[in-house]
Amino acid sequence: MAAGAFTFVLHSHLPYCRRAGRWPHGEEWIHEAASETYLPLLDGLHRLRTQGLPVRLTIGLTPVLVEQLADPLVVANLEDFMRERREMATSDVERFERAGDPHFAYVAGWYRDWYTHLLRLLTEEYGGSIIGAFKSLQDAGIIEIATSAATHGYLPLMERDSTIWAQVATGVRAYRRHFGQDPKSFWLPECAYRPTFEREGPDGARYTKPGLQWFLEQHGLEVFFVETHTIEGGTPVGKAVGDAVGPYGAVPKRYVVPPPAYVPPTMRTTYLPYWVEQAHVAAMGRNNRTGLQVWSAAHGYPGEFQYREFHKRDGISGLHLWRVSGAGVDLGDKQPWHPDIAFGKTREHADHFAGLVQDLLRTFQHENGKYGVISAAYDTELFGHWWFEGVDWLCNVLERLATYEDVELTTAGRHVRRHPPDDVLSLPESSWGQGGTHFTWLNADTKWMWPVVHRIELQMETIAAHYAAATGDERAVVNQIAREALLAQSSDWPFLITTGQARDYAMERFENHVERFDRLHAALRDGDRPAEARRLAAEYWELDKVFPDIDLADFTRREPAPA
Predict the structure, then answer these.
(1) Domain boundary assignment for the chain
(2) With 80 as the cut, is the pLDDT of residue 388 above it?
(3) R_g (Cα) of the chain, nearest Å
(4) Which H/E stretch holds residue 367?
(5) Model pLDDT, residue 86
């Protein structure tokens, strides 16, 4: 029998950038991630599927990313992007042969063949549908696709529960439209969690605001993911043993807080999922030990000297031709990349990682007598894009673990259904940002944004109440207003401002969505300008084309009544 279970939990997300231009910020973000990460990952997983191996993993695809990857314009631009890269590589072969550099000519030829293969996958194997290729893997039981908030909104900093409801509801609805079933797992944007808490209303009365798990439960979700310290810092509140009624209604059997005589467990570990407060939703924490094997600057696999160097490109074609070479080696001293040697290293590192997973699960079972699970969570774009050989490593890990009798490859939802939690935790407010707090998204550089977001939240509640029965052109206008509200709420904008990665771009995108919201709202309120309102709504829809089935009712006021 297996000692425990393992699942990769990959979080796939990019800022909304459809029709946002090209380098350095814009649609090229999608093109690079799709060609270097999503398509190679699909290729590897489909290969493992044809081998008949019992591989499984959990992959989150945020709704706003799915909408972009499913868009015909984005896909057409992606095909053009890969053809351009293939042509550049072909030209490089000739350039390096003329220069008498056979090794770089070989590497350029490798890239030419690689882009040719990816183009064939996209256009022939997958029929131009990356989302369809993911769907086929989920339908076959190979992967479980997790959803997220519609536009990756930073939920704990939203003032109104109507906003959280709309972000979750819109994300779930988009998932059903693209994947033909209900989602079971949910990636909290930035792993940012809000617990149940009390607050004081304008009249001085106190009322309870539900934790994020309540919103997920209302939409049929079963499990969500949090950072390591969120689980380890959680407060045990009981054991799931019977029926009861909680503050938000009936609690199903086995998900309740028992009598005070119960002695809570002292162990809070990411090797176990936990029910969260009184909700029928479990939380799984990121396993830190396996994470260090990838993220650690000193000991992480991507630092291997033979792996491709991300930061150095050819000055003419932009191809990556060099390898890491050594610790602290200056870009000017990087050595040539050897694809065969580099991809050979992924097999060594996969052997090490698979052995580590096996040892950790065995140790946990031996010390605690429990069937544990390792949730190894990473940004999907780390593999392939940042760590070019990473997709190959990941598939090699799955291939090895599939042969281990004492490790069960699973998905998050599957594990919770087969091994329901025994204990209930109350989780602290947290994120996977700096210091585990909200600082990355709320600081001196971004605090100006949040009053604007909160103002739009309140306006959306008013619009939802006043235009609930709107039809025709009026309904099209209010629907576009709702889309602009969601797009303005993306956590990407404050994140990019704080990190400085694309500060000006992020400010422009945020301000554009707010301006569009305000212009549409003003035209809507002015009954003498219905044609202008409809024209603006159509113009803005063509820019973004996101969430065609948005529902204004999701933005209805949902603040709980005072106690």
Answers:
(1) 1-439, 440-555
(2) yes
(3) 25
(4) helix 339-368
(5) 97
- Please tell me whether residue 304 adopts helix, strand or coil conformation: coil
Is pLDDT of 26 > 80? no
User: Is position 84 annotated as part of the catalytic site?
Assistant: no
Averaged pLDDT, 472-500: 95
Inter-CA distances, 148 with 89, 98, 399, 427, 544, Å: 37, 51, 28, 19, 19
Q: Yes or no: say if 209 and 198 are a contact pair by the CB < 8 Å rule.
A: yes
On the question of pLDDT at 251 being above 80, the answer is no
**β-pairing verdict for 274-276 and 282-285:** antiparallel
Distances (CA, A) of 334 to 302, 321, 328, 560: 15, 9, 10, 60
* Token pair 């709704």: residue: 63
**Cα angle, residue 149 at apex, residues 143 and 153 outer, rounded to 5°:** 135
Q: Confidence class of residue 257 from pLDDT cuts 50, 70 and 90? A: very low
> Rounded distance, CA 167 to CA 51, Å?
39
Q: Which of the four CATH numbers 1.20.1430.10, 1.10.760.10, 1.20.1730.10, 3.40.50.10420 does domain 440-555 have?
A: 1.20.1430.10
Lowest mean pLDDT: which of 48-62, 90-104, 401-415, 498-512?
Answer: 498-512
Count Cβ atoms below 10 Å from residue 224 Cβ, excluding itself: 23
| Residue 255: per-residue pLDDT | 38
User: Strands 282-285, 235-239: parallel, antiparallel or unpaired by DSSP?
Assistant: unpaired
Residue of 36, 190, 408, 554 with catalytic role: 190
Under CATH, which architecture does the 1-439 domain have?
Alpha-Beta Barrel (3.20)
Mean pLDDT, the chain, as a whole number? 90
Q: How far apart, in whole angstroms, are the C-alpha atoms of residue 445 and residue 440?
A: 10
Q: Which of 79, 232, 379, 445 is catalytic?
A: 379
pLDDT for position 22: 54
Residues 178 and 73: their CA atoms lie apart, in Å, by 17
| Residue 402 pLDDT greater than 70, yes or no | yes
Bigger pLDDT: 559 or 63? Answer: 63
- Cβ contacts of residue 195 below 8 Å, gap of 6+? 211, 277, 426, 427, 428, 429
How far from each other are the two terminal CA atoms of the chain, in whole angstroms?
Answer: 50
Give rounded-to-5 percent helix, strand, coil for the chain.
Answer: 50, 15, 35
Whether residue 491 contacts residue 506, with contact meaning beta carbons closer than 8 Å, is answered with: no
The answer to whether 190 is a known catalytic residue is: yes
